[in-house]
Amino acid sequence: MDKLPPPPPPPPPGRGRSGGQQPNRDRRPSFDGGGDGDQASAPNWRRWLPWIAIGIFLAIFLVPSLLSGDSGDEISYSEFIERVNAGDVREIEIDNSNGKITGEFDDETKFRTTGGGDRGLSEADEELARGKGVEIGFKTPSNNWFLSIIGLMLPVMLIIGFFVWMQRRAQGQMGNVMSIGRSRAKAYSTDKPSTTFADIAGYDGVKQEITEVVDFLRMPERFKEIGARVPKGILLVGPPGTGKTLFARAVAGEAGVGFLSVTGSDFMEMFVGVGASRVRDLFQQARRMGKAIIFIDEIDSIGRKRGAGLGGGHDEREQTLNQMLSEMDGFETSEGIVIMAATNRPDILDPALLRPGRFDRQIVVPLPEHEERKAILEVHSRDKRMGPDVDLDTMARATPGMAGADLANLVNEAALIAVRRGSKQVERIDFENARDRVVLGAQRESLIMNAEEKKATAYHEGGHALLSVVLPHGDPLHKVTILPRGMALGVTWSLPQERHTYSQEYFLDTICKAMGGRVAEKIVFGHLNSGAANDLEQATGIARRMVREWGMSDRVGPMAWHGQQQVFLGEDLMSQGREYSDETAKLLDDEIGKILHDQEERAHELLEKHRRGLQLIAESLLEHETIDGPEVAKLIQQGLDEEGVDEKIDANVLGSPE
Q: Cα separation of 164 and 501, whole Å?
């Protein structure tokens, strides 16, 4: 029925957030090798060659017929006989192929007959013409020799052309097969990409760490004088969307050297040995550049721990990794070549890949803090028309946990909502709606709940909201709604505060708040429904980790066992056996169940104490559908005042950004 924001992770070892980049810099990398650049520089006249050929072909057929056309005045056959009787005709010529008569009068005027002359001269007319002194000649026109040759050669030319096309196609396929072992890295010129550190908002600490690599590529003599050795490999580690690739482009732009970009999947092919061949070709290409940066994105696709294959098969990935290890720090040294890589899973990389001399420096690109989120929002808002009521500082405070890509999507979503609303600029309400859509999901306006479901949802969400306000250690309440969003019929939204460690009291309050919806329905209606499935899943997950991983159980003590995690390595699959006895398993289950039952009972006591406030919250939700945190706190205090309880609650709320 409702979907609480997911509980914060355990104190993770360095999560990361994203850097922003300017959205409309319109900088496109230029590739060094052939390809589209050669086609773009081809002479313009080549595109006219087919039309020129068609024109010549038509001229061969049309020009002879035009040149061979008859000339002179047209006269009828009867008029021709009259002129012969009058003695005006000097000479005539008869075409044997069609019987046409052409000739010349005494005044040197030429003529040709029409009509009955198609059969030539009769014997009587011929005797008449000879009697009048007319010179009679005959002609047989010859055929166009070129057209005759074309008619004979056309089938032969078509057959030859077909075989030439087949041969070229076969050569192209052979060329692709022969070049399958070549690197697919994209080579960028020394002046592109022109991204610099100034294009990245925030992350001063990360910039400072990788500036050393830029200085080495610019001025290597400074390091050689003192005998310092620059790191050969830099591994950028961070969650998705934190700008790891953007940092690599900035390093290339700042250093001004050759830049080769490739992804881990480009090395893998169905043929054995192709990956290792492409690795060799990649480093040879970098050595030809002198000083170069090789950037490998998503290196975990080929850098996973060796000897962990599942289900057998060939070891193509391992051979590719072995070749990369040899090229990075093998018998031959690679001076002036710096390897940069990015990954979201450094824990599954092979230890040999992370040792000093290879990727000997890991730089964590974390999720942005408040000031960094504000800077990222400013970067992505530069080309947007912002309204005067937009406060990016408030929006940055209301978006904890968002990476740079998330913030860019938030700004773009706000612009789309403004256009849909018919506004000429992006206003605060657009950012509010965009944040709700990104975090909570799109509103399902087509879903219509009946009165009973709507009332049950109101009390369910009211239970969550009430406990969010009165519990001191949980995340502050921001707003609560019974409008269906995403997969939930209602949502209670608590904004997590920026913190790096979490106390036992925080997790207990979070579990208690998750039980609030289920307990509220049981108190008011006397029965349960399926709407609390997601709440129970989250609460059980937190309780399990408290007992199994975080040592937050007195009976279990300071002991930790791994939870059910995804299998990334073959050895993980082999070691999935239980690490503890049946007695310990029962103890763990008992402690997990005790935490859940204790917090459910605690939620029941608090909701019974503030039952009038719960009723006021549900009635307000049924009327307004959405209320914010301060309004919920007022309704709870109003309920205490109506019942005559002399108590002032310390509201744990976060108001709407105004």
A: 71
- 517 Cβ partners below 8 Å, 6+ apart? 1, 2, 460, 461, 463, 464, 492, 531, 532, 535
Helical (H) or strand (E) element with 292: strand 292-297
3-state secondary structure of 62: helix
As a whole number of angstroms, the distance between CA 404 and CA 19 comes to 5
Whether residue 211 contacts residue 340, with contact meaning beta carbons closer than 8 Å, is answered with no
Measuring CA to CA, which residue among 630, 552, 622 is closest to residue 592? 552
What are the domain boundaries of the chain? 1-8+368-568+578-658, 69-139, 186-364
Find out whether 196 and 253 touch, Cβ atoms under 8 Å.
Answer: yes
Q: 298 an active-site residue?
A: no
Q: How far apart are CA 329 and CA 316, in angstroms?
A: 20
Please tell me which residue in 254, 318, 327, 461 is annotated as part of the active site.
461
User: Around 27, how many Cα atoms within 13 Å sit in the side-chain half-sphere?
Assistant: 17
Question: What CA–CA distances, in Å, run from 130 to 75, 116, 584, 620?
Answer: 20, 19, 136, 124
Compute CA 254 distance to the chain's CA centroid, rounded to the nearest angstrom: 26
What are the pLDDT digits (tens) for 57-112?
666 656 655 555 555 677 777 887 888 888 878 888 877 767 778 888 877 788 87
Give 557-571 pLDDT, tens digit per residue. Answer: 888 876 555 444 444
CA 540 – CA 563 distance, rounded (Å): 13
Backbone angles phi, psi at 104, to 5 degrees: -145, 135
Q: What does CATH list as the number for 69-139?
A: 3.30.720.210
Q: Which stretch, 214-218, 222-226, 588-592, has highest mean pLDDT? A: 588-592
Q: Are 387 and 427 in contact (CB under 8 A)?
A: yes
Separation of alpha carbons 258 and 500, rounded Å: 39
Q: Which of 299, 290, 304, 216 is nearest to 261 (CA)?
A: 299
Top-level class of domain 186-364: alpha beta
Tell me the pLDDT tens digit for each residue of 332-387.
566 667 888 888 888 788 888 888 878 878 888 888 888 888 888 888 888 888 88
Which is the CATH superfamily of the domain at 1-8+368-568+578-658?
Peptidase M41 (1.20.58.760)
Kindly report the pTM of this predicted structure. Answer: 0.63
* Residue burial 396-411, b: 16+ Cβ < 10 Å; e: rest: bbbbbbbbbbbbbbbb
Cross-strand partners of 105: 89
pLDDT at site 17: 35
Helix segments in 388-450, DSSP class H: 392-397, 404-421, 428-440
Strands 258-263 and 233-237: unpaired
Q: Is 161 exposed, middle or buried (CB count within 10 Å of its CB: 0-12, 13-18, 19+)?
A: exposed
